[in-house]
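Try it yourself: sequence plus pyridoxal-5'-phosphate, in.
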Amino acid sequence: MAKPASDRPLRPATLLVRGGQMRSNIDETSESLYLTSGFVYDNALQAEQTFTGAAQHFQYSRFGNPTVQMLEARLAALEGAEACRATATGMAAVSSAMLSHLKAGDRVVASRALFGSCHWIVSTLLPRYGIQTEFVDGGDLAQWEAAFKRPCQMVLIETPSNPMLELVDLKAVCELAHAAGAVVVVDNVFATPLLQKPMKFGADVVVYSATKHFDGQGRVLGGAVLGSKKWVEEILQPFIRNTGPAISPFNAWVILKGLETLHLRVPAMCRSAAAIAQMLEERAEIGRVCYPYLASHPQYALAKQQMSGGGTLVSFELKGGKEAAFRFLDALRVVDISNNLGDSKSLITHPATTTHSKVSAEERARLGISEGAVRLSVGLEDVEDLVEDIAAALDVVAGNPAPKKKPLARMVVEESVAPAPKKPAARTKAKPARAEPAPAKPAKPAPRKAAPRAKAAEPAAAEAPEPDLFAAPAPRRKRG
Ligand SMILES: Cc1ncc(COP(=O)(O)O)c(C=O)c1O
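Structure, out:
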């Protein structure tokens, strides 16, 4: 790994490019992808000593892998944590952090505003194993204080929360939790380590979905758990080693390369998100705009105190409820409807019917996730294009449809829509065999922006021939 020229530690941008790199004896520039499940030993003694711990050697990629280790070292350096373990997904990170530490009879206190699957772990999974759980309103310190009157072993916090961007006062809650003897786990997905460092405020463990901003280009799933060397080696590692939520070295490599541009992407996305949040506040169709760096956010002062930017997500409420929210989403031409976030492409979702659809309606109401609420993950497109797209879609909601723009091209690959193959033999060979017949697809709603799909509904004679996506490329001409 690169070393600083002075005593001053390397800055985040440098750590994101160079942190954790281990060059092999062939001196490659880019991090190597060790796509291997196992490792070989020089002799039986070395194998034995590796298993007893007397020798240092990679054993098996479920326990550790050089590419994964580079990712872990880069993330630990960025977070300022002693140790890190990468996992297959963000949920593997959250569940490993909790299940490795807890046992029957323990008690967990969590902020109520959690991502849907994290909410399920606390409300449904942990009680099945004899662990008591209690939710509090994360912004209300009196509720935290009351909850810590009884013994508590672990706290789970998400700040800003998914999807309504509520904050928890990290310093105050960590102090209360430590006085009660609890280990504090912070899900820092929405802030990223560039905008918020929970360990600076006392957090013991920080978890990430690397699927989001770390990859940042919507390619792979991944997760990470960061903590003290002692906790990671003694509590977390035996759990990961024996239960197997390991990340693929390929995914770890993609995320390593994604991290190299995190310090360029996140600030650019934050600038666009802030501009969009301000623009939304001016619109009559919107009831409430949630963005931590808006002066109207009820926890604006706290956001300024513990975050160095407002983040890449903006949530807002359409006044007309679910119907208005759906009309708005369907009218967008640049922003895609998708429940992922942190991508270079702007993505929008309706939490009540997607990410938080499994949370009861009563609990959603408590969390402020109304039927009109939508969550926008701002990407790297030109902010003017995003503002124009959102404004035009709001015009549609208001009943003043803007002139339709040319939709983005869509390559149609679904069997139900794609043309029949011209050369069945060649194409059948190229396609992977199906184990079972494909289930019948439900009828699709009208396409949002795909001209080719609309064409598919027209009589065959009127259709222009579709390109054969599986055809072999035309032979290249030899250079003269
Ligand atoms: C706050 C938060 N935590 C955890 C996760 C889970 O991450 P993954 O999808 O990588 O399992 C998500 C996913 O959206 C999330 O938003």
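One thing you can check immediately is this: The longest strand covers residues 313-318.
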